Amino acid sequence: MAEPLSESQLQHWRTFVESSWALHTTLEDELRAATGLSMNDYHVLVALAEAPGRRIRMGELASRLVLSPSRVTYQISSMVKRGLVEKQSCPDDKRGFEAVLTEQGLTALREAAPAHLETVRRSFIDHLDDEELAIVGRVFAKIRKA
User: Fold this and answer.
1) Cα(60)–Cα(76) distance, rounded to whole angstroms?
2) How far is 63 from 1, CA to CA, in rounded Å?
3) CB under 8 Å to 60, separation ≥6 — which residues?
4) Crossing angle for the helix pair 58-65 and 69-81, nearest 10 degrees?
5) What is the 3-state secondary structure (H, E, C) of 50-94?
6) What is the per-residue pLDDT across 34-60, written as a single tens digit (0 to 9) for each?
7) Chain centroid to CA 117
8) CA nearest 19: which of 127, 132, 94?
9) pTM over 0.70
């Protein structure tokens, strides 16, 4: 059986959960209202825009976005229908598939970025100084690695 959390640990945990859910909800709602894109759409578009050749194997994309393979397949299928990405056979391995950013997807990302970044800044960045941001970055890198 797991050891109970101390009062302090419990309070910090609850603060994290509640504030991260609120932040994600704000980001999702404002991005969708401004652009019609979901946060998952946006993260896929960013990952593909940053990838060599604007393409990533489906398994690597799932890992990068911390999504199950079935969830990333569903996500990509939805985005294919909207013309934001294509799903193509891997050039090296015809059994595998890659998600490929389309010009329409790149345009959607470029149009969405300013509004999304404004929400990120207003809802998160502007509340922290540089030292606090560095701590947040180190803490969550440590957690993700674990």
Assistant:
1) 13
2) 30
3) none
4) 110
5) HCHHHEEEHHHHHHHHCCCHHHHHHHHHHHHHCCCEEEEECCCCC
6) 999 999 999 999 999 999 999 999 999
7) 13
8) 127
9) yes
